[in-house]
């Protein structure tokens, strides 16, 4: 996830301090993605260095010290617009443990592949049932996160079925 773009999006609503950005981020995402103030301040420093934000004054913080307020520059608005209009690439897992486990079972313990698939399928279905129980009716970051996980698990279930079919096909060809 691009913290840079998330912070730019929040700053495009209104100028904010680092602490204000963290609160707005936590509110907007239902705190499903933990973000600490250090990440915010480091990202703000990079955004300012890159000319994507600038200072918009200061406020006196709770500790009595001046705290900078940030706002996007024209370049920052352009960067944000580019982000909004670009697709998000799917996260690629180079070392998917399930793929490795099934691959190794196929090579070293072929008799355990089908039980392994059944165990995984059972766990996947249990996770699906639990997530469906948690599913809310309003569109929040939490609900969207659950929906995404449900679709990922449904895809995993279909993939497990496909692997089983491939195993049966391979076994029939070997005979």
What is the strand and helix layout of this fold?
Blueprint: H1 3-13, H2 18-28, H3 37-49, E1 53-60, E2 66-72, H4 74-84, H5 97-108, H6 113-134, H7 141-174
Antiparallel strand pairs: 1-2
Helix pairs in contact: 1-4, 2-3, 6-7
Task: Explain this structure.
The protein has seven helices and two strands, in the order αααββαααα. With 175 residues, it is mainly alpha-helical. The chain folds into two domains: 3-84, Arc Repressor Mutant, subunit A, CATH 1.10.10; 97-174. It has a two-stranded antiparallel ribbon. A hairpin with a 5-residue loop joins strand 1 and strand 2. Helix 1 crosses helix 4 (74-84), helix 2 packs across helix 3 (37-49) and helix 6 (113-134) packs antiparallel against helix 7. The radius of gyration is 23 Å and the shape is elongated. It starts with a helix and ends with a helix. The mean pLDDT is 89. It comes from Corynebacterium uterequi. InterPro entries: Tscrpt_reg_PadR_N, WH-like_DNA-bd_sf, WH_DNA-bd_sf.
- Computed Rg: 23 Å
CATH-level-2 architecture of the largest domain: Orthogonal Bundle
Average pLDDT figure: 89
Count of DSSP H/I helices: 7
Specify the overall morphology: elongated
For CATH, the homologous superfamily of the largest domain is named as: Winged helix-like DNA-binding domain superfamily/Winged helix DNA-binding domain
Q: In the CATH hierarchy, what is the class of the largest domain?
A: Mainly Alpha
Domain Transcription regulator PadR N-terminal: 7-81
Protein name: Transcriptional regulator, PadR family
Organism: Corynebacterium uterequi
């Amino acid at each position: 996830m691009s913290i840079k773009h998330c912070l730019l999006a929040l700053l495009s609503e209104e100028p904010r301090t680092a602490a204000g950005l963290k609160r707005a981020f936590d509110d907007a995402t239902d705190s499903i993605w933990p973000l600490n103030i250090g990440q915010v301040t480091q990202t703000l420093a990079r955004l300012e260095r890159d000319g994507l934000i600038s200072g918009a004054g200061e406020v006196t913080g709770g500790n009595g010290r001046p705290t900078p307020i940030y706002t996007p520059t024209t370049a920052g608005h352009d960067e944000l617009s580019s982000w909004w209009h670009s697709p998000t690439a799917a996260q690629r897992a180079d070392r998917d443990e399930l793929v490795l486990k099934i691959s190794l079972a196929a090579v070293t313990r072929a008799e355990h592949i089908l039980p392994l698939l059944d165990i995984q399928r059972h766990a996947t279905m249990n996770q699906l049932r639990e997530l469906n129980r948690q599913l809310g009716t309003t569109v929040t970051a939490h609900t969207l996160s659950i929906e995404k996980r449900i679709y990922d698990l449904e895809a995993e279930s279909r993939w497990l079925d496909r692997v089983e079919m491939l195993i049966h096909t391979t076994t029939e060809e070997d005979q």
